[in-house]
Amino acid sequence: AVVASLEQCEVPTRGGTGFSIGRSESGGATRTLASPDVALCRDCREELRNPADRRFRHPFITCTNCGPRFTIITELPYDRARTTMADFPMCAACAREYDDPEDRRFHAQPIACHDCGPRLALTNGDEVTATGDAAVRGARALLCEGRILAVKGLGGYHLACDARNPDAVLELRRRKRRGDKPFAVMARDLETLRGLVGIRAAEAELLDGIRAPILLLPRAGRRAGEGGARPVAEAVAPGNPDLGVLLPYTALHVLLLGLEEDGGPDVLVMTSGNMSGEPIVTDDDRARTVLAHLADAWLTHDRRIQVPCDDSVARVVAGGELPIRRSRGYAPLPIALPFDVPPVLAVGADLKNTCAVAEGRYAWLSQHVGDMDDLATVAALGDTVRHLQRLTDVTPRLLVADDHPGYRSSGWAREHAAGRRVRTVQHHHAHVASVMGEHGLELGETVIGVAFDGTGYGSDGAVWGGEVLVAGYTSFRRAAHLGYVPLAGGDASVLRPYRMALAHLRSAGLAWDDDLPAVAACPATERGVLAHQLDTGFGCVPTSSMGRLFDAVSSLVGVRHVVDYEAEAAIELESLARGVAVTAPYAFGLADTRSGRTVGSGGVVADPGPVVRAVVADLRRGTPAEVVAARFHAAVASLVTALAVHERRRSGIGTVVLGGGVFANTVLLESAVDQLEARRFRVLRPRLLPPNDGGLALGQLLVAAAG
Ligand code: ZN
Ligand code: ZN
Ligand code: FE
436: how many CB neighbours lie within 10 A of its CB? Predict the structure, then answer.
């Protein structure tokens, strides 16, 4: 249960005594809420281990307090008949528990046991090699041998292998063509995890709680002989100081990681069963074909998965949760809205897509859908919208999408308008409105919205991403932005940060000298083409992207020149800066265009040139990369504060909203919050929704509904 609001009123007594649970009536006007999936509870865990219990080692053990919900519900109200458990008629013993108000399984819709529940099967692609408990034991034996297993979970198939076996992990990485993108690992228990990562109390609570997300945590100090535990293979998260970790959240996971301390694998790589970028596989037939070249065997079962749902990802910052991907365990919990909205559908953006429907005072954000560069993901968006509408009974009259004319999500909205109005919203305005919305800011309020991300379509056609917007729900004014540099060749410059480094060097008036790691990383021929592009503007779009500036600095200090996924270079730069005390931060150049010096469009322009020149000077002085990284982070935090102070002096606004994917950077977020609070600003940061584009849909629908 979530307390969304509290009000007191007198309720007249209507008479009647006693307590009963009535039969559900479908088609009524009342809106029942679908619950997210809930991680296996302690009681069920005990029974799973108890040889005397009738559900000893039952892979589908659940009760009223735990188990699948969202991923098995086909329609509301939530009753067994409207879930994928409808395929499994209850046995007499389960039916007795289900009907007994004294029982922990009273009205537990997914109730099951060895006699009546779903069944496990281990297959090698051609035939079933084992069933039931033998399937689990067979799967464990394969993991011991270093094999890769497709495992059917709650919201889709995972690929699993022994995380301590370097050959197995490398092989999985090779087959999945995953580049360096880190894998998450699932460990047998909290104790095992403590051998791998540092865990604080708030983090342990989240890992072990009802949502059981993947948490990004710093690796434990790898001192020799520490408890004799072997670390996970380097290939799990190459070069990454953090590890994404989670605990078993279903009985099947508990069994797979071993109830008994018998020396089998106690840490497994658990990564989505798909090729990178495609939606997670849920269908058994598709799993056998799509995962055929990825898995050696399949541990599967005969309960259908109604909707795909990836594992959620989060970090903990200053004691509070910072969602990175809001999916299993969270979706489709509603978000309470600060004002009434008409029935509306917002389709989000093209990266990390999620969509949302809303009506009245509630919005429902979907699970993580994926990146729209894959056509299968565009199809998945349609399925997600349909299912979300069915669960919430919202029939949208208004559709909302991003301003970007080329976004596939926006195209999907236009194609599916069917006579309904389609409104588009500026990307960074939506980022700011999203954070305002989750904090319950009301319709007339105005904030200083700091939206820092990798890319978003700007009102002037440029690629925005380092924006300070004075914004309410209905409108915004661009109060400040990062100075424009040319972005040469879009995606090429995202995947090759050295190109951004060279663009920033040129904009800062610095020569491309070979002693600079970023320059050395750029092949000579590409350097020539790039110079020509930057000189003529051919194939270039001006950008104020803060994400790209992080990429550029990462390459300048020699941390990362080429990436496999967006923000990889920035993530490594952040980890370098962590824990380094800063004495002399760099400073951006600030020019108010209203006072004459005009660069870009309107407001204050923050020139990155002085920062880039200071970075290069430090490099040539032999300053360690850690110190450069820390000084850079401090400079960005100080920039946020300086721009907020400047705007407060001008308009008197005292609330600052921090949004956009760059604020998934905890070093930056913590120091920006500290500095702003020290200057007595009210600071609002994302807590319920991700700061990245995964949280955008809420902002879109609020802006559209506000007028
Ligand atoms: Zn339970
Ligand atoms: Zn049963
Ligand atoms: Fe964004």
Answer: 27
